[in-house]
């Protein structure tokens, strides 16, 4: 009997240690107690979810009971959601209705977040604002030194995003000034660029999709945002499936799981089948072993290994461009994509084979020589990308030693490149086997 009790004790200790490894319950922290009370006052029933700190994903939600397929994970009443309706019923409403040309639903929500954050203790949304991140790690927030280390396609998108945000700020300045009667302080200091960047990132990273009817006081951009306190603590995993939608009958936003989840494990939702470049751009994180991850090949890289003296080169590039074969060319966990191989097969067509370009785009084999050359060039591109990625990783490790303030951002970009390196090494292996087979 004693032995059995000893084994039970050890088992309990093991379970307890496992639980600590999985996640540390944070529900006793004051900010979460206040948030839960605030949600309860708005009709939220306490669920089986507890805020917790996880060693790999950071802050998230754990379940206190095992979840089965189709179980309700969370049901958040309409009163808890922050939408443009919330903004219009606040003191900002009359200013938005009067303003011409109309502001976008996005700017209305950004304005509300900035105003409520500025209100501090007086804000009705304070318990929610207190648990929002103070800073973000989306591509738009990264320092110039860090952006320059991103893969080229992502670097371009990050720069485009920064331009969009800057233009949004400049075009909204006059509207922000019109709100001066509501504030004792100058609106220029309240609604500055960093405040807009924070509000924009909050909406970009945390809103759920919820379609609202078009209102005349807003521009024609779709009004599809809702901030969902507590629910937005759920982290993303590419390996889970959920069903999430607003339930008209219960007037609540509901999430149901299509995957099982053990007791005390972290509960995940899926933001969509996004690769790591998209996750970093839009959400500010990288998912390790992401099945949707890929490495992009730019059109410049594609043409690097083909002689500029090829008289049909320009015609081949035109064909690829017209048929959309100069973008979304990738290496994935299963090797080079069909699109990448097809583009390279078309560029590898000999003078006597050029008339067969339509068959190439359909996936037909034109000749053994064409197949072999396309594979050889694919392998060269893959090895070039491996060397380039290794070089960037070396730069990052040097910067991490010298730039303490950039460590968090650098670690994120490093994680992206490490995942890329794994994909490229796997692709190189696959290409080696294909070359041997042919």
Name the overall outline.
globular
Architecture (CATH level 2) name of the domain at 82-227? Alpha-Beta Complex
Assigned CATH class of the domain at 82-227 = Alpha Beta
Order of strands, main sheet, comes to: 1-2-3
Query: Main sheet, how many strands, which sense, barrel?
Result: 3 strands, antiparallel
Give the N-to-C terminal Cα separation: 67 Å
- Secondary structure class reads mainly alpha
> Given the structure, what is the number of helices?
17
- Which fold name corresponds to the CATH topology of the domain at 82-227? set domain protein methyltransferase, domain 1
Strand content: 5-15%
Query: What is the assigned CATH homologous superfamily of the domain at 82-227?
Result: set domain protein methyltransferase, domain 1
Q: What radius of gyration results from the CA coordinates?
A: 26 Å
Element-by-element helix/strand order = HEHEEEHHHHHHHHEEEEEEHEHHEEHHHH
Keywords: Cytoplasm, Inflammatory response, Methyltransferase, Nucleus, S-adenosyl-L-methionine, Transferase
Domain SET: 47-272
Pfam families: Rubis-subs-bind (PF09273), SET (PF00856)
InterPro entries: Rubisco_LSMT_subst-bd, Rubisco_LSMT_subst-bd_sf, SET_dom, SET_dom_sf, SET_MeTrfase, SETD3_SETD6_MTase, SETD4_SET
């Amino acid at each position: 009997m004693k032995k059995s009790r000893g084994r039970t004790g050890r088992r309990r200790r093991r379970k307890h240690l496992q639980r600590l490894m999985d996640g540390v319950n944070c529900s006793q922290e004051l900010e979460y107690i206040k948030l839960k009370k605030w949600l309860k006052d708005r009709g939220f029933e306490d669920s089986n979810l507890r805020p917790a700190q996880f060693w790999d994903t950071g802050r998230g939600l754990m379940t206190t009971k095992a979840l089965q397929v189709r179980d309700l994970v969370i049901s958040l009443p309409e009163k808890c959601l922050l939408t443009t309706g919330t903004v219009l019923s606040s003191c900002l409403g009359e200013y938005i209705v009067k303003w011409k040309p109309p502001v976008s639903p996005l700017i209305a929500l950004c304005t509300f977040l900035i105003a409520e954050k500025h209100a501090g203790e007086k804000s009705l949304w304070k318990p929610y604002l207190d648990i929002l991140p103070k800073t973000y790690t989306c591509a738009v927030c990264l320092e110039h030194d860090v952006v320059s280390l991103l893969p080229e396609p992502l670097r371009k998108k990050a720069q485009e995003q920064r331009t969009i945000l800057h233009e949004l700020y400049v075009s909204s300045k006059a509207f922000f000034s019109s709100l001066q009667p509501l504030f004792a302080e100058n609106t220029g200091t309240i609604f500055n660029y960093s405040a807009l960047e924070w509000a924009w990132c909050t909406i970009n990273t945390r809103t759920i999709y919820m379609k609202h009817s078009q209102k005349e006081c807003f521009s024609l951009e779709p009004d599809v945002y809702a901030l969902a306190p507590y629910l937005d603590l759920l982290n993303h995993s590419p390996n889970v499936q959920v069903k999430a939608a607003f339930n008209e009958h219960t007037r609540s936003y509901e999430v149901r799981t299509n995957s099982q989840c053990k007791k005390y494990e972290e509960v995940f939702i899926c933001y969509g089948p996004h690769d790591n470049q998209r996750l970093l751009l839009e959400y500010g994180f990288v998912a390790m072993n992401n099945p949707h991850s890929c490495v992009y090949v730019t059109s410049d890289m594609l043409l690097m290994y083909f002689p500029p003296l090829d008289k049909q080169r320009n015609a081949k590039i035109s064909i690829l461009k017209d048929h959309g074969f100069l973008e979304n060319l990738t290496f994935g966990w299963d090797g080079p994509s069909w699109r990448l191989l097809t583009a390279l097969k078309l560029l590898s067509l000999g003078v006597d084979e050029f008339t067969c370009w339509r068959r190439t785009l359909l996936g037909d084999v034109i000749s053994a020589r064409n197949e072999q050359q396309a594979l050889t060039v694919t392998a060269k591109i893959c090895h070039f990308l491996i060397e380039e990625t290794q070089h960037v990783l070396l730069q990052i490790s040097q910067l991490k030693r010298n730039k303490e303030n950039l460590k968090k951002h650098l670690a994120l970009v490093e994680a992206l490149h490490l995942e890329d390196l794994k994909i490229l090494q796997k692709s190189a292996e696959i290409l080696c086997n294909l070359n041997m087979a042919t």
